[in-house]
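Late entry, evening session. Most of the bench is empty. Finally got around to the prediction I had been postponing all week. Sequence below, unchanged from the version circulated by S.P.
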Amino acid sequence: MRTQRDKIGALFAIDLGNGQFAFGRRVSKAESVFYDYVTNEISPNTIKKAYESKIAFRTSAYKYAITSGRWEIVDSKEPLPPDLAKPKKYFIQDSITGSFSIYFDGDISPCTASDIEGLECCAVWEPEHIEDRLRDHFAGRPNIWVESLKPKIFN
């Protein structure tokens, strides 16, 4: 049974621990988007601005970040706009052979290294790592977790 805490379309505030808040939104059972917007307060005006902001990134995060209340639900809107409702493609790299696959909406297909250009690694992120990624994003610096998940070139 779905609750308000795991509802598709739910907008959640993420306390970055530095007096700032970022926002994310559940867009599917498995994915959330994280907005390119940070604020010092949560208000109707900042919620409106979050919805109007560009997407910084889209990925999967462990659901307990939302269901536990770590990330507070501040609003919810349905239906999702078509661009948010469409799932994203991710890459998978075999750690032994170095071969690549594309994960899309539950299906996995083999591919070449050139096919994964611009795709993010298929992973489910811990809430702490999403928070690190957001802090780094807003500070304009590389993120250790993103860097560690980049494709490896095997010789």
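Two things to note before I forget:
The chain is about 25% helix and 35% strand.
The chain has one domain: 4-87+123-148.
Will write this up properly tomorrow.
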